[in-house]
């Protein structure tokens, strides 16, 4: 099982980045997907999530109207489009997959990608 994030980097305030999370080794279409982030010295926080079929999304108030989560179950990929970035968006961004398979709660994490917003 792998979740591999990519697309992080250094961007100026007001800029945009698109993060990708490529999944393999499990049945991606059965899993809800979530982006989390963790800033230095802070707790990990939920950024956005999307249901297994992509029909519903949810965002943290701090990113609403700036970030968009999407997925393609044929490509086993979830994305996070981040616009109007602010210095407070600086964090390591993690991809998470979660599902109930029968009575088992299955959960996987990626290793993260660093986003730095700075002039």
What does this protein structure show overall?
It contains no helices and eleven strands. It has strands spanning 2-6, 9-11, 17-24, 32-38, 45-50, 57-59, 67-72, 77-82, 91-101, 104-109, 113-117. It has 119 residues and is mainly beta.
Question: In short, what is this structure?
Answer:
The protein is mainly beta and 119 residues long.
Helix content: under 10%
- Uncertain spans, ≥5 residues at pLDDT below 50? none
Helix and strand content put the structural class at: mainly beta
Mean pLDDT: 97
> What's the number of helices?
0
Shape: globular
Order of helices and strands: EEEEEEEEEEE
N/C terminus separation: 37 Å
**Major sheet details:** 7 strands, mixed
The overall strand count is 11
**Integer-rounded radius of gyration:** 14 Å
Strand content: over 45%
Descriptive labels:
single chain; 119 residues; mainly beta; seven-stranded mixed sheet; four-stranded antiparallel sheet; 11 strands; 0% helix
How do the strands and helices of this protein lay out in sequence?
Blueprint: E1 2-6, E2 9-11, E3 17-24, E4 32-38, E5 45-50, E6 57-59, E7 67-72, E8 77-82, E9 91-101, E10 104-109, E11 113-117
Parallel strand pairs: 2-11
Antiparallel strand pairs: 1-3, 3-8, 4-5, 4-9, 5-6, 7-8, 9-10, 9-11
């Amino acid at each position: 099982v792998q979740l591999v994030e990519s697309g992080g980097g250094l961007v100026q305030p007001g800029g945009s980045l698109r993060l990708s999370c490529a999944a393999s080794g499990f049945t991606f279409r059965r899993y809800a997907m979530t982006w989390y982030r963790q800033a230095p010295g802070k707790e990990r926080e939920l950024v956005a999530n999307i249901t297994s079929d992509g029909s519903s999304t949810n965002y943290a108030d701090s990113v609403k109207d700036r970030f968009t989560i999407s997925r393609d179950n044929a490509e086993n990929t979830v994305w996070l489009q981040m616009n109007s970035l602010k210095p407070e968006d600086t964090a390591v961004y993690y991809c998470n997959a979660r599902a109930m398979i029968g009575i088992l709660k299955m959960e996987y994490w990626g290793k993260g990608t660093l986003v730095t917003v700075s002039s």
